[in-house]
Structure formats: C-alpha cells, structure tokens
Design brief:
Largest sheet of chain A: none
Shape of chain A: elongated
Structural class of chain B: alpha/beta
Oligomer: heterodimer
Order of helices and strands of chain A: HHHHHHHHHHHHHHHHHHEH
Largest sheet of chain B: 4 strands, parallel
Number of domains of chain B: 2
Order of helices and strands of chain B: EHEHHEHHEHEHEHEHHEHEH
Helix content of chain B: 40-55%
Strand content of chain B: 5-15%
Radius of gyration of chain B: 19 Å
Shape of chain B: globular
Radius of gyration of chain A: 29 Å
Helix content of chain A: 55-70%
Distance between the termini of chain A: 102 Å
Amino acid sequence: MHFSFQNILFLLVAVAGFGLFFWQARKIRANILVGRDRDMSGNVNERLWKTLLVAFGQQKMFKRLTPAVLHLIVYVGFIVINIEVIEILVDGLFGTHRFLQFLGPLYSALTATNEVLGALVILAVAALWWRRNVKGVRRFTGPEMRAWPRLDADVILYIEVILMTALFTMNAADLKLHGADLPGAYPVSQFLTGLLPDSPTALHVLERIGWWAHIVGILLFLNYLPSSKHFHIIMAFPNVYYSRLVPQGQFSNVESITHEVKAMMDPSYQVPAPATEPDGSAAAPTPFGAKDVDDLAWTNLLNAYSCTECGRCTSVCPANLTGKLLSPRKIIMDTRDRVEEKYNSPLIFNPNLYGKEAKHSEQEQLDKENHTLLRGYVTPEELWACTTCNACVEACPVNINPLESIVEMRRFLVLEESAAPNSLNVMFSNIENNGAPWAFSPSDRFNWADDLFVTDKAAVAQR
Amino acid sequence: MEKRQINVPMMADLAARGETPEVLFWVGCAGAFDDRYKRVTRAFVRILEHVGVNYAVLGMEESCTGDPAKRAGNEFLFQMQAMQNITTLNGYGIKKVVTACPHCFNTIKNEYPALGGEYEVIHHSTFLQQLINEGKVTAEGGESFKGRRITFHDSCYLGRANNIYEAPRAVLEVLDADLLEMKRCKTNGLCCGAGGAQMWKEPEPGKKDVNIERAEEALATLDGNAEVLRNLQGAESTAPALPAGSNHGGSVIAVACPFCMTMMADGVKNKERESDVQVFDLAELIASAEGLNA
C-alpha cells in the first residue's frame, strides 16, 4: 500500500461525484414533495413483499419475454458488477491492488462472473439498441418521444458499453501485465490480451485508463441519472414500495366533498375545522382535482421520476391503439417536465437546454395563457379519451399509475371549471333528476319485472 | 313445459313483514332500463327463482350508484348518489349484495365503504360459479352449446379492477362449449371502449372506435382468422396461441357487463355478423342451457 497523487485525486473525484449526486437527489426529493400529502404508511410487510416481487424480481417485465430477458441481463450485470465498485473505491483510496483478492476462490468466482456478465451486457445492449433504432418497436415511437427522450435512450446504452469496455481494458491489461500471478479468473479478458501491446509501460497505462474510465464513468453516469429516464434504476424501488395496495378499480375518495355532502344531508353534521397554516391563519383552500403538478399527490410525482419511457402503458391503451391523442406515457413525462419547469430544475445535464420543442410537441390545443400541467401540457381532449380501463396501470413494470393523474385532472375540469363535454353534462343531470344516467323516468325502473315467467322444473319433474 | 309467473320480491315488502333476504339483487340502471340488458336481469332472476335463493330487489328505491359520475370526475354527484343509496341499504340492514354490473359491483364494493356502506358484494359471475359448484345449476335440460365456439370478453371493472378472471370462465365451462381465448385477454384484455363514462359521449377523434377494434379481435378469434390476430397491437407475449380452424356458425361472444354488451353487439353489427355471431351475458347462457326461459 502506498499513497500517491493518484489516491488524493481519486478521493477528490469520488467526493465530488457522490456529493454532486446527493445534491441533485435532494433537489428531486423537494420536487416530489411539492405534491399533496398522502398517507402511504403502514402495511410494511405487504409493501416489502411487493417490492421484492415487482422491483427486485422484475415480475411484471415477464409479460413480454424478449425485452424481459435482455433487461434482466443488464439489471443483474449492473448489480453484480457494482460489487467491483467497492473494490475500486478501496483500491483507489488506499492504493491497494485488487483488494478483494483475500476472498480467494470466491474472488475468482466474482471476477469470472463479472466478466461473463460484462460480455452478456454488451450483447444485450447491442440487441436493445437494435430494437430501438433498427427494428423500430412501435412503443418506442409517439409524439412524446421527441429529440431528448430518444437521445437519452441511446446515450444510456452507449454509456453502458463504454463502462463495460473500460472494465475489459482494465482486466485484460492487468492480466497481460501480471500473467498467472493476477488473482481472480478472467474467462473473457484472457482472449483479449493478444489485442494489447506488449510493452509493460503501455500495459500499465492502459490498465490505469481502464480503471479510471470505469470509476469516473460510473460517477458521471450516477450524475446523469437525475436528468435521465434512467433514474428508474433507483426510483423504481421506492415507487413500487409506495404503490397502491387497494383494488385498481377503487378511485380515491375526496374527503372535503364527503364533509359537504354529509352536511347537506344532515344539518347537524359538524364539518371539521379547516386546516391552518403553522402561524394559525386559515390555509388557502385547495382546489378540487389537479390543475398543476402541486395539486397531484406526491406519489404521482414519484411516478414521474420512476418512468423509463418504455411505452408499455401506451402500447396497451385502447384510446391510443385506436388513434386518439391520449398516451399515458405522455401524461407521466409531461408531469416530470412540468415539475422541473415550475420548480427548479436541479440538474447538471439539463435536458431543458434542448429547448421545449425537443421535449414535447407544441400542440396547437395547448393553452399559452395558463401554462400549467392541465392545458399547458395535457389537453382536455387527451383526458376525455380515457376509458379508465386500467390497462396502463396493469402494464407498468414499476407500478406507475397514470390513471390517478388523469382522474385528478378530470375532477378539476368538472368541479372547478364545469368544463365537461356537453354529453357528459347531460348524463350528470340525468343522474341528478332521474337517478339514472339515461333520460328514463324513475317510475319505469321496475318495468323489467313485468310478465316474467320461469320454467317450473320441479313441477315438470314431479309429473 | 310448466311455467310459473315470478313476483319479484321487493325489499320494502320484505321489510314490512320483518324479513331480511339472504342477498339483495342490485339491478343497476342498465339492467332496469336498457332493453337488451333487461333480458339479462330477467335471466338472472329466473336462475335465482329456479335455485330458490332468498333474494329481494329495491325496485324504484334503487338509484344510480354514481359510477359514471365518479369516472367522469364529478365527485360531488357521485357522493350524493352514494350517500342516498347507502342510506337506503343501511336502512334495510342489507349485508350482502349481488349485481350483474361490474361497474355497480366495483363502486359498491370498493368505494361505498369510505362513505359508510360496508356490504359483502359479489358479481353475478362469482355467484353463478358458486351455484354451479354447489350443484344447484347444471346447465342441463335446455339449449345445448356443445361444440359451439364461445369467447369471453373480459370487463375491465371485473378483471383488472377487481382481479376476477376465473369465475366467468368457470361458468362458461359448464356449457361444454368450445371456449376460445382472445389474444388480448385477462390482465391484457382490451377494453370495449365504454368505461370511464365513455358510454355517454362520442369518442374523441381517432382512427377507429375501440369497440370496432375489439369486435374485430373477437370475430377473428371465433373465425380462426390468423392474419387479423397476427396484426393486433398491444398483445403481450403471454398471449394464447392462435386457434386453428374456421367458424361453424352460431358462435357466441360472452360478456359479463351491460356496457360491454352494448359495445360488442354494436361492433358485431358494424361488421355485419349478427347472423352468425351473438353476444350473450353469462346469466343468459346459463338460463337457456338450464332451460329456464319460459
């Protein structure tokens, strides 16, 4: 062990890399918490079990086999290869060389697994790139998949290949330098040594380049995540943990309305005192439903940061399949764009630099005056096309719920703006006046029972 | 065949006699007013009468559950309806509710408890499955469905909304028919296009209507039309294998929801296939297989 300039440099790089990431993560946490309160505590065991199955176990990915296998390879590779990051950190800080070698045969197993997984990751990433850029899987297209989201998707794949290349450069150079004395097993790099120069100096430099590229690449990637859809590798876990446990058909109850309705039906009903600000003054009344991102629940904003824009939701949406404007993925992407526009965009690789039109289409229906999530990003036409069928919710591999946000915005349109389509207003007044959504007279409600007969099988059998 | 007239028991009459029924049959607005779905209501009541279930209906005291208002975002109207119905149901001390409408089912089961209405709520597909399991319904003595092709269209509010996929299929199994699954079925099932209050409005502009898309899939499944099935979008890779062979005529699209009924029947009509493909609710199929229609 010997300290050198490299160790000090490494310490600075590592502190800067992790520090910047935590600074960004705190800003995003604040962005998510602008959402309305929603108690998601309790049911810890059920939530942990769900996280284990859906997030760690990728349960919902396996509805589509090919992408599930390719994704699993990259996912397992990511987790296992990151064990090596522990070694890189220790080696980098203390000047050790392959610190984990004390594990003996286990170390060989680890390095061998890393090498095999690394090679598989490169193959899987190539297949994923092919699916996205050559084969043209339908769900990777759509009006919301504009310049930035498309570039982002490819950048992630390129970074993964660069990281794996750095790993192999490091291992192959190290192997050629030390030969059989190098601890560990290198089933892939042993075939790569022939490609490298023979000079020990060159090999040493190559090994350092590979080593530095790997760890610096990881730190840069870590700081790219908060700007990218790839943030899902972290956010998927809390998102699944905090996902709804109630049946998908159960829509949330608006409690403030419950108090109003109870007071109307029973004048003696005591409406609870309105919430107060910390200084004792009455809190500003919250609107019914959602007009902007801060009217949504914090879990809806957590959803937006967990989305990797895979488009499974949109690909099964009956409205989208039949050519309507609605795309559940767009609602989720709009939510993230809007929360970063309204609150500060804390990001170092700021995707806003690409300009608005790179992120979402400038639809003519969008309201330039009221630049809010509703109307400024999401048009009523999209919202009214939803059949509330829950196909998007069911399809999402990380339990994002676009339907909740859609219904919240519908509530705002109806309850705050009375802006429902006219035919729905007719339906509302039918329910109010006739107790049925159609214009039938309530006195005809029991007519179905007229002249109703049944075969008397018991009597038939007796005969 | 001997037949007898049914005097559908009204909850108010039972209460006046101090009786409580074992189960309240929630008819729903479509079941009460829609001419096509009234036939489902009548079929289900025939089954209840045949089996001798102790049931009652609310009659004119029933009112819309508020489902379409809630899905459309009118929470105020929904809660007004819900509280009114809960007052009625609680006033009669109702413990158990059965309904043939997945929307009423979902609303009463999942959304009434928060407003003070807690009941055991079951959908008629589950209820029929129980009657079959108990041996009370055998699907014998009536129309035979043996060898006929039937495909079941999942209702969103029964399936994804409440995870009921097997009960309707178990009910159909007793018919001894040739049951075919559509590619987009169960958790991957495609909506008929009527949910979320779409039933009461024109669809937004698009390439086609959702019910046409779904009817095309159902017809292609019954016909064994591999080309149409291959080109379907949005099917997950767990989709069932394509069925082979051609349609023998007299095929059935089975539904378990009044809105699916309307949408699928319109879709079949749009494709001019009413002559050889019919849309039936589970209760209708069971009532005719059991020979209860009189």
